[in-house]
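User: I've been trying to design a sequence by hand for this structure and keep getting stuck. Would you show me what you'd pick, starting by listing the structure so we're on the same page?

Assistant: Good idea, let's start from the same input. This is the structure you sent:
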């Protein structure tokens, strides 16, 4: 029988041992669990960035994987601790929008507010729910405990507002929703949003890009270009450099596409 898999997506980094503590709790409860990192380098408090990273990764794991995702500025506050089950995966973490893309893409079968303290550590802190609530729940889930054992059904869950690109006067107006570790600017413009039209220019700030490349190698070293990235979203990139630094752009910066 294959070992149960639990993935981790956090903003903990690796300096302080927080990620290690989460792994220790999981392995103490289920030594057979295979714990895999998606990322611990999400920008601090960047819930949208975590949602994006999770969305780019979770579906490539085997069916039955549990994804534990924690970027939690509201820890100890009123936000719900949440367990979601879809047809193929389970997701554990705070109800703060971190699972927004999951709600868009998955067929959800169960949503549970974690309230059964039997499956928490003995004395949960108010500042480290990843260790004291989410990690033990994920571990017990991997041991076969039923979803509904962890608490009551959630009536509703919080979802981030992910802006769609807008077509106006022949121009498609989008925005940057993520900046990756290479400084690539990922936009909310999906391939389908282009409608098969030929691009005349892509404008970010004062920079105009006149064509869509097929790969990074088609863009000359040191030049800014655009392409459809692995997430099927339009990316602005600087070959062997940081487009974020070169264009002084960030999440929320506007991107405008004009057509021929």
């Amino acid at each position: 029988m294959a070992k149960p898999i639990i993935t981790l997506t956090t903003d903990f980094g690796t300096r302080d041992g927080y990620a290690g503590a989460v792994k220790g709790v999981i392995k103490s409860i289920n030594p057979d669990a295979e714990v895999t990192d998606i990322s611990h380098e999400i920008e601090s408090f960047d819930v949208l960035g975590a949602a994006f990273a999770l969305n780019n990764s979770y579906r490539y794991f085997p069916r039955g994987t549990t994804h534990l995702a924690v970027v939690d500025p509201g820890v100890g506050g009123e936000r719900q601790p949440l367990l979601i089950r879809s047809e193929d995966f389970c997701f554990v973490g705070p109800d703060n929008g971190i699972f927004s893309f999951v709600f868009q893409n998955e067929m959800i079968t169960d949503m549970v507010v974690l309230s059964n303290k039997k499956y928490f550590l003995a004395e949960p802190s108010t500042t480290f729910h990843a260790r004291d609530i989410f990690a033990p729940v994920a571990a017990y889930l991997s041991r076969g405990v039923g979803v509904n054992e962890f608490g009551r059904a959630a009536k509703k869950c919080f979802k981030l507002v992910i802006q769609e690109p807008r077509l106006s006067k022949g121009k498609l107006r989008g925005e940057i929703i993520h900046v990756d570790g290479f400084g690539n600017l990922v936009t909310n413009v999906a391939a389908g949003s282009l409608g098969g039209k030929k691009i005349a220019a892509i404008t970010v700030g004062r920079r105009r890009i006149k064509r869509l490349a097929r790969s990074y190698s088609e863009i000359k070293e040191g030049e800014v270009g655009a392409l459809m990235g692995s997430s099927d979203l339009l990316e602005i990139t600087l070959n062997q450099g940081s487009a974020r630094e070169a264009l002084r752009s960030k999440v929320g910066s506007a991107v405008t596409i004009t057509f021929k």
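That's my pick for every position. To get oriented when you compare it with your attempt: The longest strand covers residues 171-179. The helical segments are 18-29, 47-55, 100-105, 129-142, 243-247.
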